[in-house]
């Protein structure tokens, strides 16, 4: 009797563990139309009125801790205006006007010549303060505003938006409009693949200009934190264009030197209670490479007492159960995954796959060519991997998931949308994913995420 009930318990336990993990998560039954929408015509993104008016205005963080901003814009015909006037809208220095001048770059790509691309770095701003900024003077002057983040600290609430693989179609516009109408997010974490100019003949770089005009309605008012994707490579020997990332690196500057990086393609920032590390899936990352040695050092600089939340942005996902781009992130996973587990990274956001997917906390760090152990296992020190390449670009939706859904996949759906990560304090962050077809109040996927350093408790998934 005792033996029989003991056996039954063992059988039950085995069954429970199978039910508990071997089944995959949820594949959403929501089905959207599959066909891709084309890029909107160039005329849908007109330049602002006026001779040589500044256009494609966008901002990003300009220093390590959030008191700096890089303001970027393009003037099409002349290098003027090459300065920005800025002033606080509140606080002790209210309305006290200052001027920052810009560095100007321009580049040629095949038969295209860019306008004058300006980057003005402003430092020493007050924390948590609204600023106005005006580019130029007179008839063509353009006025914008942004708010600096609160001082870096462990319990500072802050809300990030996340979008990837945006492009410039009507779906892209729906995603961005939906994001803007979701008023809570203060900074965009953009996980790569910006304009999709390279999908046009000769990588038509006017599509980089139209994209800059398209995103201005958000990117001029809140910082977008940039990650490079494969569509930023623009490597085209057939056009005698041999310099990878040339348009991207001329147009989108990032504060990489503030994090001791030697390349704008990988860097980090601290913002409110988050330490955000940006990696490049398309730059060398093997042992001894600059990216490898930088990341190794960078992880030792993370101070969870100051920034409890450790977030990584990269383009090509490590855990992806879509047939599109299956296992493309694998070699980078093999290189860095054990570091992410040791460092207790909270969340990794990736793009590339044009669908949405959220993983369980899992790791696969046992791989050893002789021990045969290479399956993902549940691991409460591992990050949650979120693929959010569902911005709505010209290439359409990735609607072919592997079947059955693997155990590491908690939720997946082939729809376009954006996500919001609302950090509340050092232990709790509320995460939601919003598909374009729903009103903003609806979250198609949501989760309370618990900090891995301060509260490493298993989350209640779906
Ligand atoms: C994007 O959508 C908004 C809101 O529907 C619309 O007003 C705007 O014209 C659209 N933009 C483009 C470029 O189609
Ligand atoms: C790999 O696995 C084998 C067999 O379990 C073990 O003997 C060996 O020490 C492992 N090697 C490493 C580098 O962990
Ligand atoms: C952190 O935020 C969560 C969610 O808002 C809340 O339940 C919890 O009490 C907060 N913790 C502290 C210490 O305030
Ligand atoms: Fe991509």
UniProtKB/TrEMBL annotation:
GO terms for biological process: cellular response to phosphate starvation. GO terms for molecular function: acid phosphatase activity; metal ion binding. It comes from the Eukaryota. Keywords: Glycoprotein, Hydrolase, Iron, Metal-binding, Signal, Zinc. The keyword Ligase does not apply. Residues 1-24 form the signal peptide. Residues 382-441 form the Purple acid phosphatase C-terminal domain. Pfam families: Metallophos, Metallophos_C, Pur_ac_phosph_N. Residues 54-148 form the Purple acid phosphatase N-terminal domain. Its cofactor is Fe cation; Zn(2+). It is an enzyme of class 3 (hydrolase). Its EC number is 3.1.3.2. GO terms for cellular component: plant-type cell wall. It catalyses: a phosphate monoester + H2O = an alcohol + phosphate. InterPro entries: Calcineurin-like_PHP, Metallo-depent_PP-like, MPP_PAP, PAPs-like, PAPs_C, PAPs_N, Purple_acid_Pase-like_N. Residues 159-356 form the Calcineurin-like phosphoesterase domain. PANTHER family: ACID PHOSPHATASE RELATED, PURPLE ACID PHOSPHATASE 11-RELATED. Belongs to the metallophosphoesterase superfamily. Purple acid phosphatase family. This is Purple acid phosphatase. It comes from Juglans regia (English walnut).
